[in-house]
Amino acid sequence: MDRFELGRLTDFDFEVVCKDLFEDILRTKLEIFAKGADAGIDLRRIEDANATTVIQCKHWQMSARAKLIRHMDRTERPKIEALRPGRYILATTVDLTVDAKDKLMEILRPYLVSLDDLYGVEEIVAELRSRPGIVQGHLRLWLNSAAVLQALLIKDVVTRSATLVDEIDESLKTYAPNESYTRACDILEQQRVCIIAGLPGIGKTTLARVLAASYVSAGFELVEISEDVNEANRVWDDSRAQIFYYDDFLGQANLADKMGKNEDSRLLSMLKKVRRSANKYFVLTTREYILAEARQHYEKLAAHDFSPLTCVLDLSDYSRKVRAEILYNHVFHSGLPPGQRAPFAEREVYSPILSHRNFNPRLVALSLELYNEEKDSVPYAAAANVLENLEDPRRIWQHIIENDLDEPALHLLEVLLTAGPLASLTNLEAAWQAYRHHLGRSSESRQFRRALGVTENTMVRFQRINGVITASFHNPSVRDFMRSYLAQERGAIAGLLSASISFEQVEQIWRLSHGAGNANLAAVLAAESDALVSAVIRTLEGESQGMALRHRGWASRQAAAVEIAGQLESETLGVLLANRFDDTWLDNVDDGDELVSLMKAIGGSKLTSLTDKRSEIIDAAAEWLMDGSSYDWDNLRVTISYFEELGSLVPSHYLESLHQSEFEQTERLLQNWASDQSPFTDWSMLDELVAVASAYEDAAELFPGYAEAQEALIQHREVTNTKGPKLDTVDINDNRDDDEIDALLGLLKSDDLLESGKND
Question: Phi first, then psi: what are they for 311, rounded to 5°?
């Protein structure tokens, strides 16, 4: 807790930190006042009419020492003389030299009675270090810098985590702690897994980043997952304290983004693994309606009780006080000129924003990020822009598309929507060129590069992953808008289908029409069913694996095509697919997860052409899955999970045989472990063996070594158990009235910001 940064604080943060600090130093309660209306008072203690202590808090850049001295002489000295306090204390984030203190002492006497009442940054840091409880109560003090975060990122995924570090750092600047933070902390400590769910833009990702950062600050290694949960398995290390972070783990718009390869089974296995571990935590986010949709579509997810793991964010978490802090933090860090920042301090300006039915952090942030500097001369332009975007959130992106984007850039966004969550830039350009060619437009590379430049950092973001430059939407709200935009553009849907260069593009267009809020797009796609069937037939035979980084195997592609054929009730497509299951079709399969997806799709199809071959396909696939499963523990466990998922779709004797092999391997491995013939270094495997054996009532008799393994696991957990940080929150009382909100937002029109050069 000795690593913290005063420079991360807003002016309001600094005043609240000073209030807590000087209440402890002076052993008394202090009042806090608004800037501009305090006549030189930030904090005050009144003992009697002649014994008032005034504390001023100057949160300035460290390089502003000369400006501070000049400001105290010209501006603050007259105010202090009018107040005539019995004691005056100055607290500042400026580094005060001996010479600077002498000059300030001369300026401020007789009210500054001692040099001890001058607290520069070094003095404040020293006082805070001796009071870790105060530091703990202020998130932005003790959540460490980007450099510290970077050092603790797992090296295997660091190529994409540089962006995450920047995003976490930005989140920490603007986050306002609220009741959801306390709930999430409690869930994470009790369950080791926390799924943060809620509406789009409500702050799920920000909360997850803050939680992850708090554990990193306590020494945990941060592992970001971007594609599937197997990434966590690849970097799992029993000896390290790790926290896994998985944003939009069910996809940004629909389940197709992340649930394409039996991710449900893998996900549940990982959740169980983390919950059994002694030094691991897992933070995930999802939109609440996508979680509900996932439970409707996936039997295993439906059977699992997620309620103890889930923290649902709701607008009720954002009290008027919390909303005021969110607005203040975003405006403070927005870079708005003083003339546009100051109006947010006026009650008639901020009140409609704080009480708006559509208030959420993302809309506030986007409105400020996309503010047009050409309006600087228009009074109240920035505040009006925020309110207008809350009233109609679509106008944020609609204005850009209709006024700022040329046709090549718009076509880039349309094609990117068909790419899935991450697209190779090379393949994205090829798809863009094909679409432009289909439309009869020029498709030169220089136009593509210009389109990238126009949309970069506003609507599109780029990352380098494993040496490949990828593109994705800057945030889910852009994708949401583009999906609704295409629902109004039937011609664009037909063109994208006709120009698609891969089956994955066609599949993505089809999947975009699924889920809550997509009825309009589904209707457009239904009207274009002939074009969809033609696109599937044309691209399914192709060699291209699509624009996304994730490799899609033969079985996965057929499974998606079977689902499309079933929804369209297309026997034409069904016959084409049935003919692909010849005597050699299993030679094309190299992935058990994808094969299971295909088996489930075939089992659920009602097309005659596929039901006639169902038994033949299922039996052949089951034999493929069984091959070699009995000789390796990991393969055996995976195969058992496959057949449990398939359920009655396959004959029961397969699973019975697998469970017999599981019993025999558990017996042999535990006995070898107990006799030290095969000592374990993989504690997670030993944990699995004990878990399997524990399912039998007489486990100790059936499995020699079971009791010893149980005891060893208990001792191992006691040795390696790594708890997360003590996550006390700052004060989240909801009792601030408008006068106190005035004190907070009033800081936005402070002359101190102008003098210090901060945020200019």
Answer: -110, 110
pLDDT of 293 over the 50 cut? yes
Of 250-254, 566-570, 741-745, which one has max mean pLDDT?
566-570
Cβ neighbours around 156 below 10 Å, total: 11
Q: What is the pTM of this model?
A: 0.75
CA distances to 160, 412, 475 from 416, rounded to whole Å, are 20, 6, 13
Q: Taking all residues of the chain, what is their mean pLDDT, rounded to a whole number?
A: 84
> Span 6-142: which CATH code?
3.40.1350
Are 96 and 64 in contact by the 8 Å Cβ rule? The answer is no
Which sequence spans correspond to the domains of the chain?
6-142, 146-317, 645-720
CA-CA distance, 180 to 311, in Å (whole number)?
A: 7
Task: For residue 243, list its beta bridge partners.
Answer: 222, 281
Confidence (pLDDT) at 476: 80
Question: Which residues sit opposite 32 in a β-bridge?
Answer: 43
The encoded tokens of residue 116 equal: 């001890």
Q: How far from chain centre, in Å, is Cα 641?
A: 29
- Please state the three-class secondary structure of 671-706 as a single string: HHHHCCCCCCCCHHHHHHHHHHHHCCCCHHHHCCCH
Residues 6+ apart with CB under 8 A from 712: 686
369 by DSSP, 3-state: which? helix
* CB contact at 8 A, 660 and 669: no
Q: Which CATH class is domain 146-317?
A: alpha beta
Give mean pLDDT, residues 203-208: 92
Distance of alpha carbon 503 from alpha carbon 507, whole angstroms:
6
pLDDT of 759 reads 40
